[in-house]
Amino acid sequence: MSTGAGIDVQRQLESLIQDFRAGDPPMPVIVLHAEDAADDDRVTELVDELRDGQQRHGTRLAVAPTEPPQGGIDPTAQAVRLLRDLGDGRKWGDRSASYRPYSFPRLGLVRALQDATDDPDMDEHWPTAPAGTPDGNAQREQAQTQLLRILARQRWRPRRPARRNRQALLNDVQQFLPAGVLGALTSLLTRPEWYVAVLAGIGLMILLAALNHVPGRAPLFLWLRRESRWFLTTTFLQSAARRQSTSVRLLRPVRSWRAIAARAYDVAEAMREGGPFPLQLYVLALFEDLRDNHRRSGWDLRGLKRTRPPLLILRQVSRENGGIELIKAVSDVRSRRSELDPLLIVAGVAADDAPLLDRGTDTGTPSGGPDSRSPLLSRPARLQQRLRHWYDEWAGNLRADQSPSRTNALPWVLRIALPRDELVQLRQADWRCVRARHRPPVARIVWSAYSLALVLALAATVGVVHARDLHRTYCSAGLLTADRDTELRPAPGGGTECVGLSTGDVRFGSHLKGGSDSEGGRLRELEKLVHDENARVMRDQPGAYVTVVYAGPLSSATVDPSLVKGAEELAGVYLAQRVVNENYRVKLRVLLANGGADMGHQGFTAEAIAAYAERDPTVVGVVGFGRDLQSSPEVTRRLQEAGLPIVSGTNSATYLPKDFSNWFSLAAPDEHQAKALGLVAQQLRGKSDAPYALVLARDTKASQDRYTSEQAHYGGEMLRDKGFRLLPSRTYRVANGKPELRLHAESICRGEDVPSVIYFAGRVEDIGPLMTQLGVEPGCANREISILTGDDLSKAKFSGTGGRDGVAPRITLYHAALAELREAASGTAFYQDAAQYLPWLEPGEATYDAPGFASGQTALAHDATRALYWAASLGDVRQSRAATWVNLRGVKLEGMATGTIDFTDAPLYGERHGHSIVLARVRRTPEGLSRAEVLCSRPAGVNKPLDVEQCSIR
């Protein structure tokens, strides 16, 4: 600043700015004028220096065009002209000033109404008949319609160049960004791919933007814009409302639109009448916009980032250029509203025009600041102290000075008369430019676009990492969510498999990496059939169904890609579901649970079933868990805690029914199987003196298998009881899915004591390598050897039945099987139902010895499902989970695929009798084929034990 007055005024401005950082001080209209008219130009230069200094300090300021008008324009209209251009954010400085450009939506709405009111197309539509008459009301409605049509054509915005229209279009599109984000997040709940969610959000934004810019229509959600809410609720316009509703609600668009339409016409009529109303409305809109631009509680904390108040510069105000009227309107609006706004106005006025801003008062004391004759304005006092005193006195008198009784009062004007000696230019070395203490506000650092970009980058990184973790952990996952009832777990031989309970859109067949094409295709087909049937049940009978979970091996490993057991069991479960739903009132819904290859992850599957059962009371029990593993006791205990009974078709564990009351099985226990095979062993021993026998078992130390150890235990006891001399038992390891039997075969066959009977406690996939080794080893190749084994061999497909397995030339294989199908076939509708409901079966293929049925897996799963359903629907009424558990001990079903399923004699914590059992023999025929035949059998429901005569090997 080049003058003493300029330095002091600049210091006073910076003092107000410093106070603005901490609060909301009242901002006056500072009017500067010289004491002598000869110094008017110096005052104008001082105002220009103030403008340049505030620009360098980063103040948002605008300079109103106060040049003398061309022609005789009304001062009030000229004042309106000064304000119209202030609605352009570029008039208030560039981005380097502070934060981001101002926005003036309220001032823009007022300008749009003014443009529509002054539009030539409105001239002939204004009503001419008196208000309240029928003609007047009709003309008023027509004028309102025309006004709304013009406003719609303008997009409810002031007329502006095409480039500005493009910016308005961008602003309109931005308002739909939250809707697009909401649409994207909503789509994520369905767990689609990430790009589907992005396309959904962008598509919703494009649709709303297109609808928003339909030509000749008002923008979407017009009544929800902040300027519209202000327009309807400000008390300044209540006098023009004519008792119209001001309700603005999201869910009441028609009523809200009617309110804003009526208010727009009322305001347009008032603006057409002229007077002080249009000018004061412009001033009010400007104040409201600036207050909103500096609102500290805004979502972007803009008030905390804009630490300097906006400054409006009026270089030379006069009556002709409308400056005097503008200052009066500012004072009037502030006095009427009694609300603080941040706008600081600095105006220069000629000394001769300064009296136009004086106020007539009752006390005779001017309150625009004491004049030069006051003792407080004595010449020795520094202007700096005088300015501060004037401001303090002005601020203290605001309460009284706003009273209506103060005639012609301008309480918000602080008029400062500058003496000549203070306007003298100083030496350049004495020039000063004071600035308030400045430091970057914390809000600009913490809550800014850069911080947001950093947070978004971190969130995106975390989201991507989290999404990758979800996709690596769960079978079905989206960007943020996942189906947590299924997980990806390591599979034997490498890779992963999907295990758990399929409650949503997970299909285990789609995750298969091993398995033959036919088996994998059959599993996928069955999953679709079960899913479609479930959908039909829940659609047609939403309150009359029970849910049964089938838990089986629905995936395979690369080392053993067979899906025979899971696919055949699932076929039986689906067949039972179709039979039930076609013939009974209470429907059956089936959920599928995959325990993994060889049920290796059945612990997690049981946990998922128990957790889901807590959420779904229709779950009444579980069918499956047909493999005896080390985790079987814990699995059964966990489901017992959840109140779920288990009906297994093929799990032959002897200890489970003794230890758990919720365990029911159709399979003959391992101990019973060993005793039945003892009938064969007794005949093989004959009358010779203690022939040698051997137990050859799979090594289970590195696996979860418990079945083979149970078989080895009971098989060894049986051979000992039958009088055989047992050689030391042998265990073979399995590496990469293949049994290591060569060294064992050499030791067995080349030893001094070659066993005539071998009890093989292994799996069906190991029998082929064993036969190959024994068939070529000296000592065994030319010796008659009998191999006894348990029910796992019932899954083998010997060549006599079109399969892939066989026996060595001089070796006879005796094995137990769990399902007697031949005797039960004549008394069951199982095969008739299979031919009707299993779509892949051709006519005549549904027989007890046909592929897919001969192993008994399908029949046992079917019977187990029917038994559990019977308990869950006793009396054709849907039963609870607890009632189902109790009712199972009263189940007796005849005509099942394996005979009569009878749990009525099953003791609590004890073995039951009456299981179906088969003893089969496999021998090599002279033609070189392996032929399987049934030695003896007993259908389910028969308690009479087998004897030697029935099971004769002769």
Automatic annotation (TrEMBL):
Record's keyword terms, sorted: Membrane, Transmembrane, Transmembrane helix
Key word Repressor present: no
SUPFAM superfamilies reported for this sequence: Periplasmic binding protein-like I
Regions that span the bilayer: 194-214, 445-467
Biased composition (Low complexity): 362-372
The keyword Transferase is annotated on this UniProt entry: no
Segments of this protein annotated with the region Disordered: 53-74, 117-137, 356-378
Name of the protein in question: Branched-chain amino acid ABC transporter substrate-binding protein
Source organism (scientific name): Streptomyces gancidicus BKS 13-15
